[in-house]
Specification:
The chain is of the alpha+beta class. The protein has helices at 44-56, 67-82, 136-142, 148-151, 190-193, 198-207, 211-224, 253-258, and strands spanning 5-14, 24-29, 32-39, 92-93, 95-103, 106-114, 118-123, 126-129, 164-165, 173-178, 184-188, 231-241. Strands 2, 3, 4, 5, 6, 9 and 10 form a seven-stranded antiparallel beta sheet that branches. The radius of gyration is 18 Å and the shape is globular.
Length: 271
């Protein structure tokens, strides 16, 4: 059976120039592309992110996934992270990414996010952030109390308001987005987005056609800008997307869209 979206994928990760250990983990194999950024210090953080990725690996081997598939894996991942206890540390992790999905024969990106790792789409020369950061500074931006430029320098920029584990009960956000041949999806930890601005992200994604080369270059740019955190980039290129038979609105899309979850109120800051 042909997948509704046929992809090429590249992935790169680095400890960075300031950290002793890499607490990021990622999954970069169809039908699922994820980045998790662990919190809680060495072993607690890297165990949390690795545990979440391991739970989602059970979904590999399928041609497409559903919101129910993702929700089931998220529930298991949350329980597994909450079971981790290292000297009383509250282990936790972010999670962001995209899955290949199908609606009435057409290919869709099923994207998800919890925390401040990010998922972007680059298409027709335009970079769009799909995910919404669950962070204190994003809440202040939304309230009109902080500009995006000031947020990059704000001392609260690393405080997040939702996570898997770390005492958070905040839920993930979901988006179902029609896919098109030529789409380029970027998933990254904040070690990339906090060092490399959107203009430079777009430049790299435009210039380097091979997704592995693009991922390598993005990580290298983060290191060139200081590499203050672990940095991970997953680049996914849609090289073929199945079209919906018969045209018109996708049957069942309204039901799926109504199943996505809006942003909840902040659950309290966590490092």
């Amino acid at each position: 059976m042909i997948a509704p979206i046929v992809v090429r994928v590249g992935a790169a990760t680095d400890t960075g120039l300031k950290r002793a250990h890499n607490e990021d983990a990622h999954l970069a194999q169809a039908p699922l592309f994820l980045v998790a950024d662990g919190m809680g210090g060495h072993q607690a953080g890297d165990r949390a992110s690795a545990t979440v990725i391991r739970e989602f690996q059970a979904l590999q081997g399928r041609t497409a996934l559903t919101i129910d598939d993702i929700g089931f894996a998220l529930a298991h991942a949350r329980a597994a992270v909450e079971a981790i206890a290292e000297d009383g540390a509250r282990a936790g992790t972010t999670l962001s990414g995209a899955a290949i999905a199908e609606v009435d024969g057409a290919g869709y990106w099923l994207t998800m996010n919890i925390g401040d790792s990010r998922t972007y789409r680059y298409a027709h020369g335009v970079l769009e952030q799909i995910s919404v950061d669950h962070s204190v500074v994003q809440e202040l931006i939304d309230a009109g109390e902080l500009t995006a430029g000031d947020a990059q320098r704000d001392r609260r920029r690393n405080i997040i308001t939702r996570a898997i584990g770390a005492g958070s009960t905040g839920e993930a956000d979901f988006w179902m987005i029609p896919a098109a041949t030529g789409d380029r999806i970027l998933i990254c930890s904040d070690g990339l987005s906090s060092e490399v601005d959107d203009r430079e992200l777009s430049e790299v994604l435009a210039v380097f056609e091979d997704p592995q080369v693009a991922a390598d270059r993005l990580v290298a740019r983060a290191l060139e800008h200081g590499g203050r955190d672990n940095v991970t980039a997953v680049v996914v290129d849609a090289i073929h997307v199945s079209a919906r038979a018969g045209g018109g609105a996708a049957a069942g899309f309204d039901d799926i869209d109504s199943d996505t979850r809006p942003r909840a109120e902040a659950m309290g800051g966590m490092q």
